[in-house]
Design brief:
Blueprint: H1 7-21, E1 26-32, E2 35-36, H2 38-52, E3 58-66, E4 69-78, E5 83-84, E6 87-88, E7 94-105, E8 108-116, H3 118-125
Parallel strand pairs: 1-8
Antiparallel strand pairs: 1-2, 3-4, 4-7, 5-6, 7-8
Length: about 130
């Protein structure tokens, strides 16, 4: 039997590979907005993000690097399924920004400070 080489299978494999390698980039004691997530919690958060937003994609509008920190403004254009940030988006296309600050220790992300422009989503939902 030949291996499954469908695009879905390749995406599933690539996603598994990324999740498995996350510890190379994210510290065991990572926090988000002051709350300890740890590596497993950070991975769980990202997996949930991708489950809620199957077409999750962003562009970097602004990037500032001042070690040990990186600051970025990320622009999202996506279709979250069901409830997202407490809003009933239900697959509608929305555009919003996230301002995020990463702090690194030992070459890994140890702190994430994130603010998502929820009001932009609310305005689009009417």
């Amino acid at each position: 039997m030949l291996p499954e080489f469908t695009s879905q299978a390749l995406v599933r494999k690539a996603t598994r590979d990324v999740w498995d390698a996350l510890g190379r980039f994210v510290h065991e004691a990572v926090t988000r907005n002051g709350h300890l997530l740890g590596l497993a919690g950070y991975r769980e958060m990202l997996e949930q993000d991708f489950a809620t937003i199957p077409d999750l994609y962003f562009t970097i509008e602004l990037l500032v690097v001042e070690p040990p920190r990186i600051a970025a403004r990320l622009a999202f254009d996506c279709t979250p399924q069901g409830t997202f940030l407490g809003l009933a988006v239900d697959g509608r296309r929305v555009r919003f920004a996230e301002n995020v600050f990463y702090t690194f220790r030992d070459g890994k992300i140890v702190s994430v400070q994130s603010v998502i422009d929820k009001s932009a989503i609310e305005a689009q939902l009417g």
